[in-house]
Specification:
Blueprint: E1 32-35, E2 43-44, E3 53-60, E4 67-72, E5 75-80, E6 85-90, H1 92-96, E7 101-109, E8 115-124, E9 130-134, E10 145-151, E11 155-156, E12 163-165, E13 168-175, E14 181-188, E15 199-201, E16 206-207, E17 223-227, E18 229-232, E19 235-238, E20 247-254, E21 258-263, E22 271-276, E23 287-291, E24 297-302, E25 305-312, E26 318-324, E27 327-332, E28 335-339, E29 348-354
Parallel strand pairs: 2-8
Antiparallel strand pairs: 1-3, 3-6, 4-5, 4-7, 7-8, 9-10, 10-14, 11-16, 12-15, 13-14, 17-20, 18-19, 20-29, 21-26, 22-23, 22-29, 23-24, 24-25, 26-27, 27-28
């Protein structure tokens, strides 16, 4: 229809209705709930049960705030749905005491009261590949001690370089039974006092029977000391005002070799993630990888000091900070782009700092 002079007059519509009722709600969408793989592979091993256990999952057609009930080994936990994601944290003592086969059952209802359920089973194994003992637990400067490594089966390529030692050094690593039991001499460092020194080993050795290396599992980070953030499972969302005023520190720690990794969610915000030996503040201190604002530039900071810019990154890239022995390396999608010149010792925790409100 066209009218001259851009004028519309007496415009009406008639839909044939005489009267209508008040509005009412109809929701015939069926809710669903899913459980993520427990401990990433449905196997909780002897390393992972040293930490609290995160049980997570997703929903569809369930509104935010609906309560999810999670039953693990007969104990109930609850969580709220946020953005179709839910999660609960099982205390470490409970996780360590779980039986060898564990059932997880979850349920949730949508706002109309329609229920959805799911269940899964995972395995809990407490078999340690190696047991480490020391002949003297209270060593002074005039003493040495014998450290014994007993593997569950014979191994090859186990060397001093695979061993991380606090407050001293190891020497004379030998095996007299074909690679199942090794001994070494521990010599304490002069002028050191520590009640919590540890010896740990990496995974750069193989089993003689299979030629396979030991499996070292990824562990979802359990955060604590949360400031200005909301944490859902191992995802962090900044809620505080702009500035380096928000972050969280991990309950999990690395005593020896290991790494922290994150998958890039967006490229237009600033956030830092890395490894720290203490939680002094929420600013970008200690061994922190910086993901810069706007153009996706990748920078490295150590103890608050910039070590330079190292190209760019994109959504979906995996960025990580790794310790091997006493060496810290920074990686993008598994490739090293910077190696630290500062030696690293002691326990390290995952540390984060976020500057703007966005999902990370």
């Amino acid at each position: 229809m066209h009218t001259t002079g851009a004028t519309l007059q007496n415009v009406v519509i008639n839909n044939g209705e005489l009267v209508s009722s008040n509005n009412y709600a109809v929701n015939t969408l069926t809710p669903t709930i899913n459980i993520d793989a427990i401990a990433t592979d449905n196997v909780l091993d002897f390393v992972e049960d040293n930490h609290s256990l995160l049980v997570t999952g997703t929903t569809t057609n369930v509104s935010d705030g609906q309560v999810v009930t999670v039953t693990i080994a007969g104990v109930e936990y609850t969580s709220s749905v946020t953005g179709n994601v839910w999660g609960v944290e099982v205390p470490q003592a409970v996780a360590a005491a779980l039986s060898s086969s564990v059932t997880v059952a979850v349920s949730v209802s949508n706002a109309s009261g329609v229920n959805a359920t799911a269940n899964t089973t995972f395995t809990h194994t407490t078999d340690e590949p190696v047991v480490i003992t020391i002949s003297d637990n209270d060593i002074d400067s005039s003493e040495t001690a014998v450290v014994t490594f007993r593997f569950k089966e014979a191994v090859t390529d186990f060397e001093l370089a695979d061993i991380n030692v606090d407050s001293g050094t190891l020497s004379n690593l030998v095996s007299t039974d074909g690679g199942t039991t090794f001994t070494a001499t521990f010599t304490p460092t002069p002028g050191v006092k520590s009640d919590v020194s540890k010896i740990s080993i990496g995974s750069n050795w193989t089993y003689q029977s299979s030629g396979a290396s030991p499996v070292v599992s990824d562990i979802k980070v359990a955060f604590e000391n949360e400031v200005g953030v909301d944490v859902t499972t191992n995802n962090i969302v900044k809620t505080g005002f702009d500035g380096w005023t928000s972050g969280a520190f991990s309950e999990n720690s690395l005593a020896g070799d290991g790494y922290v990794a994150t998958t890039v969610a967006e490229t237009n915000t600033q956030r830092m993630i890395g490894l720290s030996d203490s939680d002094t503040n929420v600013n970008f201190t200690r061994l922190i990888t910086r993901l810069s604002d706007g153009n996706g530039a990748l920078e490295v900071y150590e103890n608050g000091i910039s070590k330079g810019a190292f190209g760019s990154y994109a959504t979906g890239d995996v960025l990580s900070v790794q310790r091997t022995g006493s060496t810290i390396t920074y990686l993008k999608n598994g490739s090293v782009f910077y190696t630290s010149t500062v030696a690293s010792t002691g326990d390290l925790h995952v540390d984060t700092s976020l500057i703007r409100q966005a999902v990370h």
